[in-house]
């Protein structure tokens, strides 16, 4: 079976359009329907802060979690980050830090996935 050059061009164009549509869908889901933020809880007398993400589609990208805290026991600057993959509709932890309970803190948490950068600094009760 032989395929004409004209037909090959049409097939290639169709594949390119399909690939573009798939990437556009991932980019939209990364910023539109994806939920991310900081979940806080108490753990062994400390305050646990977890960067967490939930997406309706499987997702991969990079994250950065930076926490600055200060309190009676001193101060700390903690920075974590790297590549991640997240399954669809599952809460995925992207970094976890324990600080002294009662400390004041500030957080910078963002995710880059599907060509989009998402600001995830907000507190969330829990995504689990």
Topology overview:
Elements: H1 5-31, E1 35-43, E2 46-54, E3 59-71, E4 74-86, E5 92-100, E6 104-113, E7 116-119, E8 123-124
Parallel strand pairs: 1-8
Antiparallel strand pairs: 1-2, 2-5, 3-4, 3-6, 6-7
Number of domains: 1
- Which topology does CATH recognise? Immunoglobulin-like
**What is the general shape?**
elongated
| Mean of residue pLDDT values | 78
Count of separate DSSP helical elements: 1
First-residue to last-residue Cα separation? 54 Å
Strand order of the largest sheet: 5-2-1-8
The helix content, as a percent range, equals 10-25%
Order of helices and strands: HEEEEEEEE
CATH architectural grouping: Sandwich
Largest sheet: 4 strands, mixed
Number of strands: 8
Secondary-structure-based class equals alpha+beta
Description:
It contains one helix and eight strands. It is an alpha+beta fold. β3 (59-71) and β4 (74-86) form a beta hairpin. It is elongated and about 40 Å long.
Characterize this entry briefly.
This protein has a single domain, classed as Immunoglobulin-like. The protein has one helix and eight strands; from the N terminus they run H-E-E-E-E-E-E-E-E.
